[in-house]
Amino acid sequence: MPHKVFLSRLKLTDFRNYAAVSLDMDGRHVVLTGDNGAGKTNLMEAVSFLSPGRGLRRAAYSDVTRVGASAGFSIFAELEGMEGGVEIGTGADTTDENTARKLRINGTTAKTADELTDHLRVLWLTPSMDGLFTGGSSDRRRFLDRLVLSLDPAHGRRASDFERAMRSRNKLLDEGRFDPSWLSGIEQQMASLGIAMALARQEMLGLLTRLIEETRETSPFPSAALALSGFMDGQFARPAVDLEDDYAAMLADSRYRDAAAGRTLDGPHRADLLVRHREKQMEAERCSTGEQKALLVGLILAHAKLVANLTGHAPVLLLDEIAAHLDEGRRAALFDLIDSLGGQAFMTGTDRSMFSALGERAQFLTVSDGHVGE
Ligand SMILES: Nc1ncnc2c1ncn2[C@@H]1O[C@H](COP(=O)(O)OP(=O)(O)O)[C@@H](O)[C@H]1O
Ligand SMILES: [Mg+2]
């Protein structure tokens, strides 16, 4: 394994309940403990802003900015990144409503947030994801796309370009403008982007499935069987050009139907991630709450391993309230597994003793009311 990717310093200004805070880290895992509402998840959210997107809460920047702050928030991080030492600064000026997030890497303004993925990959698991298997398909799709994105940074661009093309198709249909050449142009674009998205998802699931298979015997967690459904089911072994032609034809044939529905009814934006508990031969949504959590933890850690194998560097892991609801044996096995990935993990909990099995492998910090101490 090459050098470890880790954060060595994190400074926040007017971020959530932190007016100003600075943390120094020594490369070990970081355990954050403190009472409810102290600011543990907020710190993880700040780290999640070191990846493209709106962070682990998908929050508006105006919500992220500390109440009472005059301008916006800022985050500064020093890290040992995939290409060596790097300084990342990001933030948004929330006095302007449509503000974008600014990003500087080693003092130079980055053109897109995708540049972050040259330096680190960040994966997270938070209690708000507990309902992933029982909730609506859009959360699972987003989860799936984040997994793809951590391997293939171009996936985000493909998805947003697809969305844009689809919106223009919906608008033309809504306005009753059935101009065939105009529509086919847009539908061609949707077809090439949409099939590329679906294939990227399919490829990632294939790799993840193989890795889960290989590590099944030794994993302390149940293993997930993964499948996609809802778009071009069972067809992904066919050449991409054929799939594109089929999807474009499908769109052309469904213009009147989609106009009546007010939206595009076929496409990668309707796909769902199906998860089964392999050992139990049971759909994840029918498993117990504890089993679902264990499946999800197993899935995230398998994916982290996949990212490590493919990029050569373990991702930074943000595991919020990870130790809750696990018995002591499972907890120790979890910590060993996290540590064996070879990266840096941030973990939170209310009680330090839950993390004692980590011993010297972690640095312990206490969070209270927007302050962080030893
Ligand atoms: N924009 C904000 N400005 C000030 N405080 C905030 C802001 N957003 C959230 N908070 C506060 O941050 C506190 C800590 O949140 P959180 O990090 O989720 O706590 P926990 O330690 O339980 O994970 C909450 O009390 C919340 O009210
Ligand atoms: Mg929390």
Describe the protein's architecture and organization:
The protein has 9 helices and 15 strands. The chain is an alpha/beta fold and 374 residues long. It has 2 domains: 183 residues, P-loop containing nucleotide triphosphate hydrolases (Rossmann fold, 3-Layer(aba) Sandwich), CATH 3.40.50.300; 154 residues, RecF/RecN/SMC, N-terminal domain (Glutathione S-transferase Yfyf (Class Pi), Chain A, domain 2, Up-down Bundle), CATH 1.20.1050. The strands form 3 sheets. A 6-stranded antiparallel beta sheet has the order 2-1-4-5-6-7. It has a 6-stranded mixed beta sheet with strand order 8-12-13-3-14-15, sandwiched between helices. Strands 9-10-11 form a 3-stranded antiparallel beta sheet. A hairpin with a 2-residue loop joins strand 1 and strand 2. Helix 5 crosses helix 6. The longest helix has 36 residues. The model has no long low-confidence stretch (mean pLDDT 95). The structure holds adenosine-5'-diphosphate and magnesium ion. The site of adenosine-5'-diphosphate (ADP) has 15 residues, from helix 1.
Could you name the key traits of this structure?
Rossmann fold, 6-stranded antiparallel beta sheet, 37% helix, Glutathione S-transferase Yfyf (Class Pi), Chain A, domain 2, 9 helices, binds adenosine-5'-diphosphate, binds magnesium ion, 6-stranded mixed beta sheet, 374 residues, 2 domains, alpha/beta
SSE diagram, text form:
Layout: E1 6-15, E2 18-24, E3 29-33, H1 40-48, H2 61-64, E4 73-81, E5 84-92, E6 102-105, E7 108-109, E8 122-125, H3 137-149, H4 155-174, H5 180-215, E9 224-229, H6 240-253, H7 255-261, E10 272-277, E11 282-283, H8 289-311, E12 316-319, H9 328-340, E13 345-349, E14 362-368, E15 371-373
Parallel strand pairs: 3-13, 3-14, 8-12, 12-13
Antiparallel strand pairs: 1-2, 1-4, 4-5, 5-6, 6-7, 9-10, 10-11, 14-15
